[in-house]
């Protein structure tokens, strides 16, 4: 682990991450060899080193104070099959257990069936987090993965925020009311630009509904 920490410190010194919009993922503009960029979120980018396939490094690009909160979230969660594990934190990065699989977002893109069991696995993991005094926030198709046949939540960075979030509730409802009756029975590949339009449309829908509710 010490060798990996040293490699991660070097990555942290060399990496440059841009943050063009608060509503879009961060954008690394360089990835030092031999690291591989495997994902980007609203706050951080995730990298893999080929010599350490069981670990990933999450480097924050904005709201670095959230790193400390994310560390505390993982400490509360402990070891649970519905989540990763945090091994180490320093400066603006975390070293996490790598979860291999496919996100629900990519399942829809590639026409891969999403079993009901995955939905129930996430329900159970969220209930577990609530029992630990956490607040499951920002759980959506890009943050939920199918790994070895079960549902896993791969981003818990917002679980400390005491805010209302309906993303998983709405996704779950869409799964049973629409997906299970259509794309599950007749799998189709949905282009990313279509999925992105749905994502943007959902964001404005929730915003309009919130404004209407508070008028």
UniProtKB/TrEMBL annotation:
Would you say which domain of life the source belongs to?
Answer: Bacteria
Against InterPro entries, the record matches this protein to: Kinase-like_dom_sf, Meiotic_Drive_Suppr_Kinase
Query: Where does the chain cross the membrane?
Result: none
Give the PANTHER family listed for this entry. Answer: SERINE/THREONINE-PROTEIN KINASE YRZF-RELATED, SERINE_THREONINE-PROTEIN KINASE YRZF-RELATED
Q: What name does this protein carry? A: Serine/threonine protein kinase
- What is the protein's species of origin? Fictibacillus barbaricus
């Amino acid at each position: 682990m010490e060798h990996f920490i040293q490699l991660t410190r070097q990555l942290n010194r060399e990496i440059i991450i841009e943050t063009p919009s608060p509503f879009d993922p961060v954008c690394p503009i360089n990835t030092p060899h031999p690291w591989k960029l495997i994902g980007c979120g609203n706050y951080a980018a995730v990298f893999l080193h080929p010599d350490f396939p069981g670990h990933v490094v999450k480097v924050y690009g904005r709201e670095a104070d959230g790193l400390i909160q994310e560390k505390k979230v993982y400490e509360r969660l402990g070891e649970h099959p519905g989540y990763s594990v945090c091994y180490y934190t320093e400066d603006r990065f975390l070293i996490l257990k790598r979860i291999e699989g496919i996100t629900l977002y990519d399942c829809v893109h590639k026409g891969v069936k999403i079993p009901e069991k995955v939905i129930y696995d996430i329900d159970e993991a969220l209930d577990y987090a609530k029992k630990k005094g956490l607040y499951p926030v920002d759980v959506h198709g890009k943050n939920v993965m199918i790994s070895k046949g079960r549902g896993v939540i791969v981003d818990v960075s917002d679980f400390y925020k005491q805010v209302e979030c309906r993303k998983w509730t709405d996704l779950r409802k869409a799964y049973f009311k629409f997906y299970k009756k259509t794309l599950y029975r007749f799998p189709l590949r949905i282009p990313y630009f279509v999925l992105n339009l749905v994502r943007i449309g959902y964001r404005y829908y929730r915003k309009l509904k919130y404004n209407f509710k508070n008028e």
